[in-house]
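debug: dumping io for the single-chain case to check the tokenizer round-trip. Nothing else runs in this session.
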Amino acid sequence: MNTAQDIILKPIITEESMMGIVVKKYTFKVAKTANKIEIAKAVEEAFPGTKVAKVNTMHVRGRKRRRGYTVGSTASWKKAIVTLTEDSKEIEFFADMI
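debug: decoded output
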């Protein structure tokens, strides 16, 4: 059984993800093996008082990078956009950034 810290790796802080906070959409980097149900339970466990309405996930592919003659790629990862219900409490971590 994975804990919430094993599933939610870190928040994604970009200009587009900060605009989603107004409508209670929060973006996280999550474990590649986590499914939507596990992500929803992890958010509710990690941030008490929140209720998840919907979870959208996507796989972000690694990009090709060059260093001289050597060609490699960055690691692929999984992103989750979590939408909270209207009566849910906001996530305080993101509230300080607006």
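debug: round-trip ok. The CA atoms of residues 58 and 84 lie 18 Å apart.
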